[in-house]
């Protein structure tokens, strides 16, 4: 059985929420992006990415602390951080329930996430 596909690499999606629940080993990101062409619409598409069964929680928690520190420094509701990349880590093989993912977000150290699964859903 093959690892699931990543159909959306989320490039340039804006991070609205980054929340790691260490006890449950779950990272939830809420993201938004404007569909192409940008100049013809004010529509915003919101998505929720959930990564669960995270085995390297310390690395994810460290990034969570950086995000929280940045939010404390800004009066804005949004940081404006954008996803650069969400994909499988080519250095490590992934299989069902044993996924090795990369998540790169502007202004944060790149994350390598070892987890059981991920889901991406629209937010209404």
TrEMBL record:
Organism (species): Hymenobacter gummosus
Top-level taxon of origin: Bacteria
Protein name: Uncharacterized protein
